[in-house]
């Protein structure tokens, strides 16, 4: 498959139909008032993409904001704020976008090229707290602006006039067009930034929205909110829902109960709950291009700065048992940092993750030998491993699995689990106060680079501080003029994954497969394997 067609459509598999107990069905009521009830598994920390970046935030913004492009039903970019798909000039290094005349913010102001310029400058500035400034790497001067070596005005993005946006790159980026659907690249209203200042995005009424819906009722800390129609949206004829109601639900059993009661139209279930509902007529499996993994703290003086101890940990975890018995939701073991279905290597014709699967993935005897050798090298007989995760029920179960596997198979290992609210967990991880951190990386666009970026030495998302000169060199080589050479680019991608495996940079656990209970009369949802699910064109039949 050619490089510019790597994005695979969502691999959605309906479970076989079977009778199952179901409670109240609110389908008729939802059909009448066109109100969609959704859940998020975690809190929103901010709606400002220059301040925070997490899945719950992006899920909300996917349905209330738009960038230059949006993903269509096949997962391919289609025009949104931009009037058409743009072909680059200047040997693949310049993109010139024309914005649509009828694009407006929820306060009635027109969306301008300057709104994109301000947003991108804020997100790459040294003061950005999102941890996502790296995603702009390749845009001219982005890395120098982030490092404080150049002012934000030197970023390679400018407004030629109100409706013309010019972006200059440092090298050809084959995946640039696909990146433009990401919330990180969404515009920010200049008027809203001026009006709300430092409080921009801290609550739903502290920003403006340019998508089909606007967020209402989020105060900055509450666990439920609404998305109401944006009366100024340019494509109102295709918007059928009158409202989306969202709430945070961390427990799968609670999600199931809410679905039965008619209080959720799309419920994500996991663990024992999912295991018991695999034949439910409302069940749908959505395979996502994401990997759940353990970040391993490799800072000097920490246990996992020793490569043998890292490898031992990875080899001692029975990932098949985790997927089939603990999760039981259709998930599959992960062996690489890149998920299957993300991308096909066009030079081999094979799925990238499949072709890069290591030959050895589970070997307790070898793990025990490496563990003792590593402890001896560190002058220790025992260690206590600090494990951080958030307090979702399924994540607690995974923590117990890891704890049991490690403590029962590796002599002298003790695992101290901290299952705490997401903010508490992230604060400790950001400060380096952990040995293992349960993490998810969901690819932003359909290319291994979307994953590999975050494990570079100086990447803000590299909380484990993995550092390899060889790995960095492979990524740097792929981010150069040679990116236009398909064979050379994909050789660098294979080399990078091989280096991650050799170093046990992280410990992959399982590939992301979501089990959804979905109301049978809900139609028009765009189930994307890459990025977020798009409910904006959904409706009840």
TrEMBL record:
Pfam family, one: SBP_bac_5
Keywords: Signal, Transport
Record domain Solute-binding protein family: where: 77-461
CDD domains: PBP2_OppA (cd08504)
Transport in keyword set: yes
Range of residues in the leader sequence: 1-20
Family: Belongs to the bacterial solute-binding protein 5 family.
Protein's UniProt name: Peptide ABC transporter substrate-binding protein
Origin species: Lactobacillus kitasatonis
